[in-house]
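Data availability (excerpt). The following record was deposited with the supplementary files.
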Amino acid sequence: MAAAADTADTVDQAEIEGGPVIDDLPATVNQIIRRHAMYAAAGGLIPVPLIEVLTSGTIQIRMISQLCDAYGVKFSENAIKASIATLVGSLLPVSSVGYTILSFTRAVPVVGPILGLATIPLLAGAATWAVGRVFAWHFAGGGTLENFDAESAKEDFKREFEEGKRKVSEAVKG
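Predicted structure:
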């Protein structure tokens, strides 16, 4: 286990080799993903168009950094930016075009803020959940950032995005 052995987010070798797991991923990894999905959902509450997109991207990069630490994988911010864009872009038109339009509808009096408040946090949290899960599965299988293939992960990402919407919705409801 690499440099992050002193942090609370480091995956204990026992967790990887049969310790506490949730959905076949170590509990610590699921905690990292869940926490960052909630951060992204909270960032989606920022009422400035497109700022929530930048916030989500930053949160996703930070989450992947922590997942790299947890799995002892070398982190490179440059190596993941294109992969995140490919994964999130696979939700078109929901993510890019729809998300941008939805973001700008916040400027419409009364309806815009309500619509934005109801949807953008959910989408941001779900996308972050899906990004985290796809990378965690890759790292759990011995993968690295260098051999991550975003194109082949798109279907898994879409499935995890749907699950992420459910998980974020449940967390928000309490």
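Summary of structural features: The chain has seven helices and two strands.
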